Amino acid sequence: MSVIPEHFRLDLQPNANPEAIVRVGNARFTLLAERLLRLEYNPAGEFENRASQAMWFRQQSVPAFTVHTTPTSAIIENAYLRLEYQDDGSGFTPENLSIQVKATNTVWHPGDVDETNLRGTMRTLDGINGYTPLSLGLMSRAGWSVLDDSR
């Protein structure tokens, strides 16, 4: 068994502050920052807290927000975003989940395709000579982007 030297170890804190988490039925929403939401749905209501490649430090200060919930719905709002969710037992769908970006009045729904995403990066350029396709990135002219780190 190899031991990772101390100076190479990451300060993994994958559990978000509980005050930033809103649960409605089998959905969990976490406000990681003022403009960053984590959305999770699991039919069994079990959620993943392990660190992912992109999000390994979720223990951030809690942004200011308001929340109005019922047993089957939630409205989460802050200065930048408004999330509306109606739990109908079908996971996240365009009919039951929306997030409004207030600055542009853009509304995102699950499944929306972002044609203006500025793309990400390549892990390595070894063996690349010319064009190479890039995966979706975190920056977009649409004012929103989706990072699916569920795998």
Broad structural category: mainly beta
Write down the oligomeric state: single chain
- Tell me the series of helices and strands, N- to C-terminal: EEEEEEEE
Mean pLDDT over all positions? 86
What does this 3D model show about the protein?
The structure is a single chain. With 151 residues, this protein is mostly beta strands. Helices cover 0% and strands 27% of the residues. It has strands at 21-24, 27-33, 36-41, 66-70, 73-77, 81-86, 97-101, 106-108. The protein has a five-stranded antiparallel beta sheet, with no helix packed on it. Strands 1-2-3 form a three-stranded antiparallel beta sheet, with no helix packed on it. β7 and β8 (106-108) form a beta hairpin. The two termini are 26 Å apart. The model has no long low-confidence stretch (mean pLDDT 86).
